[in-house]
Structure formats: structure tokens, C-alpha cells
Amino acid sequence: MNSISTFEQFYLNIKGNRWYWLFSVFCRFALAYAFIVAGMVKIVGERFASGLSVVHPMGAYLEALHHTGYYYTFIGIVQVFAAILLLIPRTVTLGALLYFPIIVNIWLLSYAVRFEGSIVTSPLMVLANLFLLVWNYDRLRYIFPFRNFSNLGIIQKPKKYNTKFPFLFFTIVVITIVLTITLARFGYDAMPRNSLSDCKKQFENTKNEKVGFEFCECIHIDGKNLNECLAEFEK
């Protein structure tokens, strides 16, 4: 049995389990909700994360994006459209494909500027999106560069689901969430945070208090870019 056949047998077992199906439904609705909220803000013309200062690395980006006019509105429309596709069972695959490059971009942006608002949620959303893509493997496999396709076909919803609880899978999900939160909380020596006071709190009563305060002022008062402030901090 080759690797593709082994995976497809594993895939069939997953598709027939009620708990995996419920998790896929949760991912669909959670991802759709996030993009509907974010997209509608753009469609109505409001700046996303409007409380974030324009001198903050992410605030500067969002402020510039807000001033792009119809491009900003277009991003909101695409986000809402992707969310609607996820909510409709027949268009989930298309919605997951459209959603994926958008959320990967948000994830990379969040890590690049160390934005506290989405540094935890964005990687988890990427993983949820990947789960939906794998869940719809039976529809997506035809775009892969396989020489031959098995007779798997499009999997229909089973008349009766297997109700065995996948402890290993959900243990991995919980561990992934904990590790993501831990990385966001302790993975960086300096975070710009969302305000000057919040930024300074991470350095209070530590050996880096003085240089930490200077880093925060570099971001929130001087308005310098993140890399420049980090370079001064790391000296």
C-alpha cells in the first residue's frame, strides 16, 4: 500500500467520525465570524483597530491601508465573501481556498510587527483553515500533481457517524493552543504592545527596565520603526 492509499484510508476514518465533523463545523463558523466582523469594518469605511496609535508598527500599517480607498473596501468584501462561502456546505472548499492566502498574510504580518491583537489568533486560524482544506481533500485532490487518482470519489455524509472520541487529536489541539499562547507571551524579549503603559509593564522591576522603557518610548513616542527600536534595545 503506497503513502497516498494509506492517507486515504486514514482520511476515510476521519470523515466518518462525528467528533471530527463537529470540529470542522466549529472551524467553519469560527473562521467565518472572524472575517465577517473584520470585513464589515472595512466595508463601512472604519479603520480596523481604530484605538491603536498611528505610531505603533501595526497602527501605522492599518492607517496607511485605511487610506487606500476602494482597495481597503475590496479587502473587506473579499473577507466577507470568503466567510459566506465557508457557511454554505456546498461552497466550503472554495471558501477555504480563498480564505487561506488572506489569513496567512495576516499571520505573517502579525509576527512581523509583533502585534498583540492577532499574534495568537492568526496562527490558530491558519491551522483551522488547513484542517478544513484537509477535510475537503476528496474535492481538492484533483488539483494536485498526481499521475493517477484512486477511486475515492467525493465522500458523502455517512448515515451514521462513528462516535469514538479522538483523544490524541484533541490533545494535540490543546497542546498547540497552549504552545501558541506561550510563544506569544514569552517568545520575545520585547513586545511593542498596544500602548506605552502596557509596553512598559513588561519591563517593570526587571534588569532590562531602563532599556525596555527606552524601547517603548522609541515605538510609542518617537514613532520609529520596529526594527530600528529593536536594534537599539538589543545593544
Overall description:
The longest helix has 26 residues, at 18-43. The chain is mainly alpha-helical and 235 residues long. It contains eleven helices and no strands. Helix 2 runs antiparallel to helix 4 and helix 10 (209-220) runs antiparallel to helix 11. It has helices at residues 3-15, 18-43, 57-66, 70-87, 92-112, 121-135, 137-140, 167-186, 196-201, 209-220, 226-234.
The main β sheet shows up as: none
Annotation, overall tally of beta strands: 0
Helix content: 55-70%
**How many helices in DSSP terms?**
11
Summed over residues and divided by their number, the pLDDT gives a mean of 93
User: Strand content of the residues, in percent?
Assistant: under 5%
Q: Rg from C-alpha positions?
A: 22 Å
Oligomer: single chain
Order of helices and strands: HHHHHHHHHHH
* Unreliable runs: none
Morphology? elongated
Structural class: mainly alpha
End-to-end separation in angstroms reads 56 Å
